[in-house]
Amino acid sequence: MFKINKKTEYALMALEFLHKSKGPQSVRSISDELTIPFDTLSHVLQRLGKINFVESIQGVNGGYQLKESLEKLSYLHLCETIEKKSFFKDCVELECDYQHKCNIQGPVNKLNKKIKDYLGSIKVKDILEEKIT
């Protein structure tokens, strides 16, 4: 089974919550409703804000709300945003000790490209609506 990182899982849960909510939701209300650690959720929402996917509304009735449609965010972009790293690197970027003798470099790089392309094609909306093909 493909393992989803906890922070990415929290991001998906928060995005689903915001998608179904009317108006801005405080980090505390989302955290309490979904039983997600407050500090971790706050960090996740800040990361999503940096890519302009959610926005922070200031004031008494403020909080976070979606700024973009869930159809616009790919699963790959979500993962890389939350984790602050690229998940796919070719053998040259990894500086592998076996690179000069490796007999599977080509096939592994092709496999990584196919997985990257697939994860980049999946939209968050499709995940949440269970419409992954």
Question: Would you kindly provide a written description of the structure presented here, covering whatever features stand out?
Answer:
With 133 residues, this protein is mainly α. It has one domain (6-128): Winged helix-like DNA-binding domain superfamily/Winged helix DNA-binding domain (Arc Repressor Mutant, subunit A, Orthogonal Bundle). Helix content is 53%, strand content 6%. It contains seven helices and two strands; from the N terminus they run αααββαααα. It has helices at residues 6-20, 27-34, 38-50, 75-83, 91-94, 105-121, 124-128; strands at 54-57, 63-66. The protein has a two-stranded antiparallel sheet with strand order 1-2. Strand 1 and strand 2 (63-66) form a beta hairpin. Helix 1 (6-20) packs across helix 3 and helix 2 (27-34) packs across helix 3 (38-50). It is elongated and about 60 Å long. The two termini are 17 Å apart. The model has no long low-confidence stretch (mean pLDDT 89).
